[in-house]
Amino acid sequence: MDTDAVDEESIWREYQRLSGLLNERKHRLWVAVESAELGREGISTAARATGLSRTTIDQGLDELGQRRPGGALRRGRVRHAGAGRKAATEKDPELLSRLEQLVEPTTPGNPESALHWTCKRTRPVVRSAQDAEASGWSAESL
After folding, report:
1. Cα dist. 35→6, 14, 103, 110 in Å?
2. How many Cα atoms occupy the beta-carbon half-sphere of 135 within 13 Å?
3. How many CA atoms lie within 13 A of 72 on its CB side?
4. DSSP track, 34-99
5. What is the pTM of this model?
6. CA of 20: how far to CAs of 4, 24, 26, 56, in Å?
7. Does residue 75 contact residue 116 with C-beta atoms inside 8 Å?
8. Cα gap 105→118, rounded to integer Å
9. pLDDT of 81-118, one tens digit each?
10. What is the 3-state secondary structure (H, E, C) of 82-126?
């Protein structure tokens, strides 16, 4: 049997065992360590075994200092600062107030409290928001 096939199979098995336990960064670092241990062709073998892209594994090697120093993230960070999806309220500052208008008629309790409850289920709220958005989010549509 080909040693690359054996390496791929063992990496795949380990990856399946760990996949639910690791976050994005730890996946990247673990696969980078595995690829570094395989030596030449390690990145390609690890990429085939895990389905991660070669650039992701390269980034993991950089973070580990296997390539060039200074590529590491600060401890505790999964992504670089500013990376990832922007908050929906950052894209649309009025979103929170419009959502509150959608659920306000069904919100019991003290209106002064920071904690709000609603009797509406998620899907009807989503449908109402989609209908309101289609009609331009006017106050009448809420």
Report:
1. 14, 13, 51, 57
2. 10
3. 9
4. HHHHH-TTHHHHHHHHH---HHHHHHHHHHHTSSSTT-PPPTT-SS-TT-SPPPHHHH-TTHHHHH
5. 0.47
6. 25, 11, 11, 18
7. no
8. 9
9. 777 788 888 888 888 888 888 777 777 777 777 777 77
10. CCCCCCHHHHCCCHHHHHHHHHHHHCCCCCCCCCCCCCCCHHHHH
pLDDT of amino acid 4: 60
Domain positions in the chain: 3-64, 88-141
Q: Across all residues in the chain, what is the average pLDDT?
A: 78
The alpha-carbon radius of gyration of the chain (Å, integer) is: 24
pLDDT of residue 141: 41
Q: Is 75 left (phi over 0), alpha (psi -120 to 50) or beta?
A: beta
Structure tokens at 134: 């289609």
Which parts of the chain have pLDDT scores under 50? 1, 68-72, 139-142
The H or E element containing residue 7 is: helix 3-18
**Token code pair at residue 92:** 């649309």
Q: Check the CA dihedral 31-32-37-43 and report its sign.
A: positive
Find the largest Cα–Cα distance for the chain: 70
The confidence score (pLDDT) of residue 140 equals 42
